[in-house]
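Pilot study result, target chain (214 residues):
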Amino acid sequence: METLHKVTAFILEERDGKCHLLTFLHPTAGRQLPAGTVEAGEAPEEAVLREVWEETGLQTTIHAQLLSRHDRLHAHRRMILRAVNFFQEPRSDAMMEPISLQRGSYIDINPQQQENGYVWGIHENFDFTYNPPRSLDKRSGWVDLSCLTDKQLRHYFTLAPNDPSPNRWWHDSDNHRWQLEWRPLSPPPQLMPPQDQWLAAVYKKVSVSATGGS
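Predicted structure:
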């Protein structure tokens, strides 16, 4: 299977004598870091700068690439390699459902329901501000197996903004409006899963990068 590459940005800046990490509060998915999918033909270094610009409005400079590691997906979870539609039947000339999943989207499949190179899948969005999370919308249908992968490699970068920014500001991206906020790196800011695990995995390296160590 083809590997889908992802990037995560740890944007650091000294503010009031302490190292701060840039986070944003998504209206339905909690506190997060800038992150996203590497497009076809794009290098991870290009992707992380693009994602930061799209999600924060900041021009940044890469300080270091911390590591790359495979994300662990649930047993039946897959990622979309290229834009794909749900079909009502397992064939390319079947009627399509009114939704197109973009590269990098998640889908949960039923391996027991496969036919003619298609698999039955479900895509669901949640509002994670509720406990337990509340479903916002749910789509299901047949998906071309060649458009799916369970191999996801995530690249972690530390970056620095090129210009000064306020402590908080609003930004419109991906059909949402969210609030960007600088948070002290120590103690680690609380992030939504699995982003809390991303920070935990590289926290020591991020802290070293923040102090200019090697």
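One observation from the pilot: The chain has a mean pLDDT of 93. A full batch analysis is planned for the follow-on phase.
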